[in-house]
């Protein structure tokens, strides 16, 4: 059974940082491109960052470039998202996403991030 378990969300004031983690199990982690998505209240799901399975190439939404960083630990089967200089508009549920080249897709249950004074 595939599981993606996010952690690290919480309430922080603007300008602070958070690190999200997503621990994967039940899949061959190195076969999967890993991503973080977010969904703010009343808004559509947004792709935040992606790291490629083998090349480790990363891509970011324009809104987070230079402030967020995604990386992964293939030994621990975990993907991380470091979020710096958080803004109130970053308030959302953040979801971990895994996709392989055969089209298999998995989602985590989400972790809430709230940026507020």
Question: Summarize this, please?
Answer:
The chain has 117 residues and is mostly beta strands.
Distance between the termini: 40 Å
User: How many H/I helices?
Assistant: 0
Class from secondary-structure proportions: mainly beta
User: Biggest β-sheet: count, sense, barrel?
Assistant: 7 strands, mixed
Helix content, binned percent = under 10%
> What radius of gyration results from the CA coordinates?
13 Å
Any low-confidence stretches, pLDDT <50, length ≥5? none
H/E series, N to C?
EEEEEEEEEEE
Please characterize this protein's 3D structure.
With 117 residues, the protein is mostly beta strands. It is built from no helices and 11 strands. The model has no long low-confidence stretch (mean pLDDT 97).
Task: Give the key terms.
117 residues, mainly beta, seven-stranded mixed sheet, four-stranded antiparallel sheet, 11 strands, 0% helix, 53% strand
Describe the secondary structure blueprint for this structure.
Blueprint lengths: L2 E5 L2 E3 L5 E8 L6 E8 L6 E6 L6 E3 L7 E6 L4 E6 L8 E9 L4 E3 L3 E5 L2
Parallel strand pairs: 2-11
Antiparallel strand pairs: 1-3, 3-8, 4-5, 4-9, 5-6, 7-8, 9-10, 9-11
